[in-house]
């Protein structure tokens, strides 16, 4: 029992000392205050996968009123800049190659005639060097064209052909749940907290421990009656309230500015945040045990943080990634946290929906603790 | 400028770099790991996406539609007992798309020539906006093709961009030039060059000067007769050579492992990349020389590196950003380098049409070097 008591008091003492250090670390504090604003404005206002201002061209061979109407309807979608005139296929290819245009719509000579018979076809040339935009633009153009009614007005003549075709058609009633306008903004802002906490926890702890080793105070602490694991835990404790403060900030800001409040159980959200914060802090500690200068620690943190944003599915859905890469991403706590965040904030999930991600993060945390203990031992000798 | 002094400085830097196993490991592993990670993550085709399905009709026609959805390999169909259960699956994140076939589906199909086409309800998980956008295109293509299940030609559902059935409206035949299957790999590979060369270089120089300041050798360097230009070149030339090696290493790995070779001129790409490395190295020098302490330099890099990488068009096209931000993005050298590397790598572009980018890079180079020289002098 007294062992437990001394454990708690040792951890408390180290935590107290660490909190005092953080309070005086201006550089760290300014990072904590500035970064949320930068990330929020980036993901709230700037970054988007949705094509906009697409430069495109029209290779007009049909010269019919039909072709003008198609171009107008595409223009009305709002994704495109005013179209450029393209004179030939060679010209189209050349301008796609220089990157001047992203798409070229070819309106064939037979367009008006084909439309009379039904079954008119257009050709769309896309710059495949930007595959995401190309795929989306292709889909937009196809949708506009598919909804396009080539015959200008039904002139009362019954078209038996057309009736049969309509009969074969299936009417899709589509709805996008949780995010009706498919705004990328909601997709990103839901995981704003995950990104901020990753930065905070990783750079905070990785610098903290290495900095002490550089300054020689780490040896002093080891000489005191605290055990290494107590030092590590004591170093982690002060970051937990900071992390929760940042988390709340990242919930309130999108709520106030864009009306994006969590739809689900906020208690579950706070609960699942704890294992994530612990696991991220543990990664920072682990980084500090494998590096010897603070410069190296920062290095590893930076090159860990950005790829982890990508591979964990924060910036693009992990479901897109090939099987091997998906499994690698599962080793990152951020993967599970972003799943939990999106389930609660966007889809209105609760404790039941976040149980598995929470467990996964606890497992990762336990694994990291074991790794840290193993790495710290030889250094005591 | 004294060549003999410069040679001494270069030799000193080379030895310092070679003696530090950490830097060497970083210089080799970051480019390779970066390529492998980023090369695989971007994909435009949906595969094995969980699709929850409630078939209320349980008829021949509805089963046919289900079979069509399952056959393409795009969706893994998970059956549900009620439409409410499908909704629950979406909330829990177990499925990304929900399809509800109503009980009267079959009646409508058989009502030949009827005014109302049969209705199928499709629910997408908008929480994963990019995923939902792509899934929508595929469902439309597959279900739109479901009608011809009653006898028409079957469109190819595996194409990267689904085609609309031409019976209603106007059909579109899409053809992607330069990357006909719309693969993500070449796009990400070309961008990874920009990512690695921007941030590895800046950090390496920042770290190397920070370390020198910590041990006090930077001050010593400043009191030697070496001019600031010589100090700058002494730092930049050896690291530039290392990164030129990195560029070739990355080209080999991208080609051999990911199968992505540059479409355009390889020597041109190496020359441009090396020049860009020099610019970034100068930027790193400024970062560290203007910081009062090691911690400050390090925090600066951490706080700014992530927004910078987002604004340079590495993942998100600059075109999609608000106008004011686009101007800011165009003021970053990384933006121009990534544009150039994509042009050469993906579209096989010659040097002429990239002239504006080259001019911008050159201007940055001159400006940054002058600024770096001043920063080094100021400390002396």
Write the layout of secondary structure elements.
The complex is a heterodimer of chains A (381) and B (380).
Chain A: H1 2-23, H2 26-46, E1 56-60, H3 65-76, E2 84-86, H4 89-97, E3 103-107, H5 111-117, E4 121-127, H6 131-147, H7 160-168, E5 171-177, H8 184-189, H9 192-215, H10 217-223, H11 228-236, H12 239-258, H13 266-290, H14 294-311, H15 323-329, H16 333-345, H17 351-380
Helix pairs in contact in A: 1-11, 2-9, 2-12, 9-12, 9-13, 9-14, 12-13, 13-14, 13-16, 13-17, 16-17
Chain B: H1 3-19, H2 21-41, E1 49-55, H3 60-71, E2 75-79, H4 83-92, E3 97-101, H5 105-110, E4 119-125, H6 129-144, E5 171-177, H7 185-215, H8 217-223, H9 228-256, H10 266-289, H11 294-311, H12 323-330, H13 333-347, H14 355-379
Parallel strand pairs in B: 1-2, 1-3
Antiparallel strand pairs in B: 3-4
Helix pairs in contact in B: 1-9, 2-7, 2-9, 7-9, 7-10, 7-11, 7-13, 9-10, 9-14, 10-13, 10-14, 13-14
Walk me through this protein's architecture.
- The complex is a heterodimer of chains A (381) and B (380).
- In chain A, β1, α3 and β2 form a beta-alpha-beta unit.
- In chain A, α9 (192-215) packs parallel to α13.
- Chain A has 381 residues and is an alpha/beta fold.
- Chain A has helices spanning 2-23, 26-46, 65-76, 89-97, 111-117, 131-147, 160-168, 184-189, 192-215, 217-223, 228-236, 239-258, 266-290, 294-311, 323-329, 333-345, 351-380; strands at residues 56-60, 84-86, 103-107, 121-127, 171-177.
- Chain B has 380 residues and is of the alpha/beta class.
- In chain B, 63% of the residues lie in helices and 8% in strands.
- Chain B has a four-stranded mixed sheet with strand order 2-1-3-4, sandwiched between helices.
- In chain B, α3 links the parallel β1 and β2 (75-79).
- In chain B, α7 runs parallel beside α10.
- Chain B is elongated, with a radius of gyration of 28 Å.
- The model of chain B is unreliable at 146-167 (pLDDT under 50).
- At the A-B interface, α2, α4, β4, α6 and α7 of A face α2, α4, β4, α6 and β5 of B.
- β4 of chain A pairs parallel with β5 of chain B, so a sheet runs across the interface.
